[in-house]
Design a protein that fits this description.
The complex is a heterodimer of chains A (about 325) and B (about 325). By secondary structure, chain A is mostly helical. Helix content of chain A is about 65%, strand content about 5%. In chain A, the strands form two sheets. Chain A has a two-stranded antiparallel sheet with strand order 1-4. A two-stranded antiparallel sheet of chain A has the order 2-3. Chain A is elongated, with a radius of gyration of 23 Å. The two termini of chain A are about 25 Å apart. The chains are: A mainly alpha (about 325), B alpha/beta (about 325). Chains A and B meet through helix 1 and helix 6 of A and helix 2, strand 6 and helix 3 of B. The structure holds adenosine-5'-diphosphate and magnesium ion (MG).
Chain lengths: ~325, ~325
Amino acid sequence: MFTSILHNETQKIFKRRLAILLLAVTAVVIMMTFGEFYLSGSAHKTWQDNVNNKIADYQRIVNGQAPSEWEGKLPTPDEAKMQIQVLQYHLDNNIPINGNDAGWFVADTINKEMALLMVLLIAYIAAETLAQESGEGTIKLLMTTPVSRWQVTLGKYIGIMLTATIVLAYTLFLGYLADGILYGFGSLSQPVILSPKIINGSIDMTASSHMPLWQYILSGTLLNWLSLACVGGLGMLFSALLNNSGAAIGATLGTVIGGQVGLGVIKATWPNYLFWKYLTPASNLPIDINIPSGTQVSVAMAVVVLIVWALIFITSSMFVFEKKDILA
Amino acid sequence: MNNNIPILEARNLSKTLGSKTIVSNLCFKVYPGEIYGFLGPNGAGKTTTIRMLTSLIFPTMGDVYINAIKLKENREGALKNIGCIVENPELYKYLTAMENLKQFARLKGQTNEDYLYNLLVKVGLPNTADQKVGTFSLGMRQRLGLAQALIGNPKVLILDEPMNGLDPQGMKDIRDILISLAKEDNMAVFISSHLLHEMQMIADRVGIINNGKIIAEDQVSALLSDKTLSLKVDEPERTLALIVNSFNLNGTIKNGEIQLELRNGIEMADIIRLLASRNIDIQDIRMVDQELEDIFFRLVDNETSYLDKRVEGVR
Ligand SMILES: Nc1ncnc2c1ncn2[C@@H]1O[C@H](COP(=O)(O)OP(=O)(O)O)[C@@H](O)[C@H]1O
Ligand SMILES: [Mg+2]
């Protein structure tokens, strides 16, 4: 019987929302690849240009000349020295870091910069589901069929996560293709050095933790999928609580964005246990050559926190909807 | 199936929303093969009751039994026996008629496409299987809603004002379908309406609900036994007094016209003879169709006596 519910719920959300979601991410990806390519003219920076710029930045920290607008937690001069060695190692051995080719575009731009857009899109469609059926009155016929309410709630949630998975996979594929056409596909097995070990002034690859680029990409995508599972659950909860999809969408997006803005200014550690901290978790993956690097939160922590909150949200939405008077 | 055992029963059903009691202490039984009309003006509590019968909302007090299964204790088991429309038949506009039927058919464990197509034909929607429901008129959606309710051949049909939005031919079609389901397939049909004449044409029994309470339950014919005569004369007050004194009838004056309730075998002809013998000019005289409101006013006035007359489970 649950397979029937799943069949129904996926049919509804696919028919209703899949095309528009794919269209939206297509537009964004095309803008970020072809749009940027033609706007920036011939001045395409190579990864070596970027790395050289970063080395120059770190050098200013070593020399005590860091500009005052670099707020946050700056690396110490010693850390900066080490970063310079790491970056130099990449240059010397021709190991790209944040390169232009397709693999790096996916690992960096799609997984890190586009993650928040995905979060908002999935929060939106999750907030719609039950509330939209209430608003349009279809919930009345649906809930008089001989199936239990919690199964319908769960079926809707799984439908949303299937949609999220398809959109995520499609975005990766499209981004890889578009960037590859413009800048080349590069190699997906090139190494990504996560935590370099420096021995006698050079990086010891056997002691450093590293993984091939494709694995780095997949880890980021999986992490992002967990944050979608979390906001999807949050959206379902508001959807179960409210009878109007506009209200549910507003409450969900307000919570997601408001929480992130609000927590950004808090310096305590307790926000580390809240899901907002990990809404774009792929950004927490190491290999961040940006200055300042800020406090890195561990990936394991992100995984645990996101899973726990997703479970809390989805069980509470099932509970809320199970007991609710349907007065739509 | 034993036709003397109720297939749908409400026991002391009550619902309070906020501080407002919307339905209180409702009791009724519906038997297989019977069409039970649930009659009441707008806002009487018909939809609220139907929401409780179909487990969309939970009673503040009381119980619903479907096929002798207590809804509260075995929700899915009880719901297996019903098909329903609650208020307007809101279906998925972005799906076709057939896709909509399949949505419900899957959940009722009945997915044979030929079977569903025959249901479409039965409710008068052939050749619409692949049409998006968003393009349907209200009447077509009522028909599709009925097809949806019929999936799996339920023992009880619960329909909330299913004639809304239908043209006269549509009403007749639906009426014929419902009568055949009850009489030939022994289905119990619980149908709500605010239109008396509609119930007159279809229901075996009606329960009349007003302000959340059942104020009468009987055969339609029994409820309609009184006839009303409308009479227009020059001096209505004096004429009314004359008639009341001569025949011991009840009457009122509404919009300058006398409204008389005919009883005890007194006919229109008797009134005409009386007025002619007194040389009173009759400008207009006719029998009036009783409106539900008229029956209500009378019932509400005599609420207690009607409830006394009512016998539980009279067939
Ligand atoms: N969600 C609600 N909250 C409070 N009162 C309601 C709600 N829904 C309906 N009512 C009230 O309950 C009464 C009965 O409504 P309803 O059952 O829809 O009547 P009917 O179907 O007979 O027209 C009405 O007075 C209506 O205003
Ligand atoms: Mg109603």
